[in-house]
Each structure stands twice: as C-alpha cells, then as structure tokens.
Amino acid sequence: MERLDKILSEAGVCSRKDCARLARRGLITVDGLAVKNPADKIGENAKIEVDGEQVVRRREVVCIMNKPAGFVTSTEDDRSRTVMELLPEEMLRQKVVPAGRLDKDTEGLLVFTNNGELLHRLISPKSEIPKTYYVEHEGTITDASIRTAAQGVELKDGTVCKSAKIERLGEGRSTITITEGMYHQVKRMFAALGCHVTYLKRIQIGNVNLGDLQSSQVRELSEEERNALF
Ligand code: URA
Question: Which of 18, 99, 183, 186 has the fewest CB atoms within 10 Å distance of its CB?
Fold first, then answer.
C-alpha cells in the first residue's frame, strides 16, 4: 500500500501539492470512486484515474535484451533502427533506458533499467563491473597476447587499458573480460594485438549471463540477479 500522492508524483502525473488540489475537485478516482484525501493508501492493483485517464504506475524494472546486430544503442536515431524498437510496450511505459552501449554490429547482453542509481552504477567506470565478450577474429591470440592483455593492452592511440582476461577457445575464437567500457574497446584491443574482430557478442555482465535468451528477446532479471548487479 502506498500513498496516492506518492504514486502520482512517481508516475510523473502531478506534484503532491497538485494531487491534493485535483483530489479536492473530485478528479481522482480509485477503482471508480473519487478519492478526496491524497494521503490515502492505495493497493498495488487498484486502478487509478486522473481526469478520466488511467495512471501507469511506476515500478522498478531491470531487464536484459539479447541485442541483434543492425540496431543502435540509443533512445533515438534519425537513420537507424534503435534497440528501443525491440522493447515490449510495458518496458517502454516504465521508461527504461539502455545502461551502456553496444556497437550497431555487436550482439548480445544489454541491460535496461528505469532505476537511475543502478543506471549510474552500471555505466560508471568506477564500478569496474566485469563484462565478458565472445569474439571471432582474424589472426591468432598467442600466449604473449594473453599476457599483454593481463598487463594492460596499449591501444593504437596510446591509451593503456586496464588488465583484461583473454581465453582462447580455438583458432580465431576467444573470450575477453574487461572492466572498462571505452569506445569500441574490444575491437581496438584486439586490433592492437594484431587481430581484426569479425564478430562480437557480449555474453555476461557481472553475475548476469545471457544464457539461452534468443536474439531480440527481453526478460526481467530475478530479484537475486538484480541485487547482485547492485
Ligand atoms: N567493445 C567493442 O568494440 N564494441 C562493443 O560493442 C562493445 C565493446
């Protein structure tokens, strides 16, 4: 149960003060009945209407998408399709945004949330959340490349990356775990190691694994996964 004025201000409908005014005028109904007191406690499933319009109640949403190639990680773009187009209606209503970025041609795990604090944690370089990518590439990742990655790859522009862990899966196939999120970072790291990336997919962020989520599909995180991300 939550106060009516709190629900309405969180939903972005009106301020608490305006809620009192609207309630006095009989413009707010809960399950069809006018509510005059903005401090009234309202149940989770009650239908609230303000001036005849149903209120979409905000709840915290943390979800993941298996992003397909060809979509930009942006809320708007004039030229390309965006990941927002793949979100279910309910997520859009809850005003989730992508936490971090994947390149247009990169696939895989993308987190969305409407929790500003979590968003900040996920994108802040200070958080150093490990992110693992599956990489297909030209050339060979040698033992020396793995050691260099562990010590900190120097990119072609002179930037030195933090320690990263590369695992060789086979010829032209590796995984890399990094704790930063610089522009085109994985592609630039592999380029610095003499390996051009031909396919890139993020498979894990912190404790959250893409698992068998199909391309373009979205699922909400369990309470446990969400808490561990925090
Ligand atoms: N590194 C890249 O080069 N591209 C991505 O999309 C993510 C990490």
Answer: 183
Domain 2-54: give its CATH code. Answer: 3.10.290.10
Whether residue 157 lies in the annotated active site: no
Ligand 1 pocket check: which of 104, 133, 156 to mutate, most ligand atoms within 8 Å of Cβ?
133
- Single-letter amino acid, residue 53: E
Q: pLDDT digits over 26-43, tens only?
A: 999 999 999 999 999 999
Going by the DSSP 8-state scheme, the letter that residue 12 receives in this structure is T
pTM of full prediction above 0.85: yes
The string of pLDDT tens digits covering residues 112-121 is 999 999 999 9
Q: How far is the CA of 66 from the centre of ligand 1 (A)?
A: 15
Does CATH number 3.90.1150.10 belong to domain 62-126+208-229? no
